[in-house]
Amino acid sequence: MSRYYNKDLLKEKLELEQIYDLLDLWGGEPEYTDGGLIATTICHNPPGLGSRKLYYYQNTQLCHCYSGCAEPSFDIFELCIKVMKIQKNLDWELYDAMDFIASYFGFEGTSVNQQSNELEDWEIFKRNIELPPPIVVPILQEYNSNILSRFAYPRIEAWEQEGITKEVQHRNLIGYYPVEEQIVIPHFDINNRLIGIRGRYLSDYYAERYGKYRPLHIMNKEYSHPLSMNLYNINNSKEAIRKSKIAIIFESEKSTLQYQSYYGYNNDISVACCGSNLSYYQVNILRDLGVNEIIIAFDRQFQKRYDDEYQKLINKLTSIYNKYKNMVKVTIIFDKDMITPYKASPTDIGPEVFEKLLKERIIL
Ligand SMILES: [Zn+2]
User: Fold this and answer.
1) What does the alpha-carbon distance between residue 38 and residue 216 come to, in Å, rounded to a whole number?
2) How far does the centroid of ligand 1 lie from the alpha carbon of residue 83, in Å?
């Protein structure tokens, strides 16, 4: 049965994060900046080409192309129509774009009888073509894994002290790149293809300049990948996740390494989203494995209850819950009693504390 949408209501429902997701989905490599979201000009170029001149402004809910579009201002539905034409040669109309976006985020449409009184307010469009499945996880570019032979693989004692055994370090090819004093973390996709390499700076000098984590740069080549299109450790944990139908999602790679160290490879159901955003791609990777519960296990990013960071974290977790609750059961580890330190991951203080947090996780 067709569903019907009110364009303005649907637009209002879309949060900035969801616009980010869509730009990401369409290959625009979006980035949050003070001036709004910035992406490549997927409005008139295929993904991967074009300059970073497509802006999205939250206050007007409009995209603006500062390069090649004849009519430079358009909303997210018009962008969707442009993208479908360029990338799939589909001739979509407004209805198709609204239906695609609503389905993608699990928003309900309205059926005909529900809206009979307000009929005039609603733009009604007939679905005129079959929609492709809304979420397709793209196959990411693969890097030649020979590069991994160029790193040193010493014992990283700082990590051993944090509960990551040297066996787990070896198994995950955690290395060291002396040129920039970085711990090397190779990222693989679910089929064990090398899709990126992240470096974790050991020296404060670099960490303060570039941030703790950064894609590795070697001889002018950057080993980056779109973090939101993969889950770190999924190559290791996929079988146990498939069996248990549960996955635990941490923010950082290190937490999954701790998890393996505590519970062994066969019991490993951990992945990392590598940031504090969870994308549709990532949830979909887990759904494809038949998962019926995802456990969000983010860091304790607040100093005390009810401070600003506390509120921010609650908002973030709530938005993740609302975004995915129609797709999968979402439960949340939340250290409200602060038994882990500020900014710690739930696994940082050892398995006992983790298990307590896990047992007391929020199940809505
Ligand atoms: Zn354009």
Assistant:
1) 23
2) 10
